[in-house]
Amino acid sequence: MRRFSFFHLLLLSPAQSLTTLMLASPAVYVLWLSFTTSNYGLDPQFVGLANYENVLTDRHFWTATKNTFLIVNIVVYTELILALGMALLVASLGRWRMILFAVILVPYGISEVVGVLSWRFLADPNIGLLANAFRAFGGNFSWSRNVADALMLICTISIWHHLPFTFVILYAAVISVPRELYEAARIDGATALQSFWNVTLPLIMPAAVLAILFRYVFAFRMFSEVWLVTAGGPVRMTEVLGTYLYRVGFRFSDFGAAAATGWLMVIASLVLASFYLRTMYRASFAND
Amino acid sequence: MTKFLKIAGKAILICLIVVWSIFPVAYVVLNSFKFQRDIFAFPPRAFFTPTLGNYADLLSKYPDFFGFVANSLFIAVLATLLSVFAAACAGYVYSRFRSTALSASAFYLIAVRLLPPLVITIPLFPWVNQLGLADSHLILILLYATFWVPLNVLIMKEFIDQIPKELDESATVDGASEGQILRYVVAPLAKQGMVACAVFVFVFAWNEYVYAFIFTIQNAKTTPLILSELMDSVTGTNYGILFAAATVQLVPILIVVLALQRFLVAGLTAGAVKG
């Protein structure tokens, strides 16, 4: 076996320097910024925890936090259930399987902007197909005025975009369940539901947990869907943490408060991610 | 009878899935070929007189649009090359060597990737301005490439793990240098992994909105950003142009995704399920 040498360090350096330069060092600098007050162009002044105090006492921050947690939980678990159902259905199909598989992947290739564009027009209160259909059935859907409707639209768009990801992960798990197990269950007289509950579910659990964690971490940073649909309105009622951070930093030019928000998001993300990181580390890189 | 019900139930579910996945996309594409009066007709008309007028209008009223599409392509291609190169090199090392320091550095790569991307824009924004990189292609290329480096390293490691070490070793015995082994033994066999990584970066870079929104002003603008601006500025008479522009943006990337879906799925499962 070859020895680890300078050449190998060289091979690692592009990946490591890109990540350090573009992601890690700004993230660390944000921590410092969060203890300072700095407007664009001025030198940062140390202010201790004042930024955190300002953020944590801002009611818009709490609206954003509440919305974020609401959206993340709705999106992640709806996706999980839909993706699991779809995975079971696709796995049970014969020759149409690959076509349906390709169809399901379509939203993965679509830009968030185009997704929002399409859904926004579909749901347009005056001219949209969905809103008109709602009205035909006596309902009313107005995302530009009603906060609950707006959040529902945002969740729908987010689920639409990310369902392919969750689906692929769960589908891979579902088809890797050994066929013999189903046969054994059938011979033992298990119903379809029982064999799903006792055979499929336990075996796909690790993949399901992984999909949930991944989607938690990524849904938590949501920005585009909200920004492009409502921009946080009406009156900042649909703000999420991502748009809150953007507004505070880039619209109100309060980099200190934005940095504090950012660091609070980092801590929350790391807590969410730590479960995933632990499993990943054990599985792939543990030094044994 | 129950068998019939079962089949009918499945068929209904399949139709629902197809409508859900494809309708929002088909809606944009179809509308781009409609006359203004047909776009918002309710109930929608299944048959309409198609027109290329919206594309002609796009070309004449927004001649810059296709320049921005070229911009997007340039940025996406360079980001892809950079990211795949960095990930393949590092993936090789992580696949062939084990040590505490290496594990720690791999862990660091992945942990950093989980930071919310908006957070890093706060310090990057002034830095980028000071370095004169605001509104440059370079900053977007670097960001997009970096964003996929950690997961691509993981994916490349999984793929290179599949290549037997004995192959490297016998090449060494034959007197090949390590650079040659990488170039002539590992790289060709890890091609599938590299394509998978390339698809991820390319799709991401082509479609990305947040960084383009924050770091570009005019020169380096990408298509999604132009679309978002069009979306907020259209009124009454030019919805068709918006749908035409969106179609120009989405059709090429959709072809890429569907043509290379095999690699995409292989990459996702290697990077996520095994991890």
Task: Offer a quick outline of the entry.
Chain A is an all-alpha fold.
Written account of the structure:
The complex is a heterodimer of chains A (288) and B (275). Chain A has twelve helices and two strands. Chain A has 288 residues and is mostly helical. Chain A has a single domain, classed as MetI-like (MetI-like fold, Orthogonal Bundle), CATH 1.10.3720.10. Chain A has a two-stranded antiparallel sheet with strand order 1-2. In chain A, a hairpin with a 7-residue loop joins strand 1 and strand 2. The two termini of chain A are 16 Å apart. Chain B is mainly alpha-helical and 275 residues long. Chain B has one domain: MetI-like fold (Orthogonal Bundle), CATH 1.10.3720.10. The longest helix of chain B is centred in the first third of the chain and has 32 residues. At the A-B interface, helix 1, helix 3, helix 4, helix 5 and helix 7 of A face helix 1, helix 4, helix 5, helix 6 and helix 7 of B.
Topology:
The complex is a heterodimer of chains A (288) and B (275).
Chain A: H1 6-33, E1 36-37, E2 45-46, H2 50-56, H3 59-91, H4 97-105, H5 112-122, H6 129-136, H7 147-175, H8 179-187, H9 192-219, H10 224-229, H11 241-251, H12 255-285
Helix pairs in contact in A: 1-12, 2-12, 3-7, 3-9, 3-11, 5-7, 7-9, 9-12, 11-12
Chain B: H1 2-31, H2 36-39, H3 53-61, H4 65-96, H5 100-113, H6 117-130, H7 137-161, H8 165-173, H9 178-189, H10 191-207, H11 210-215, H12 223-233, H13 239-259, H14 261-273
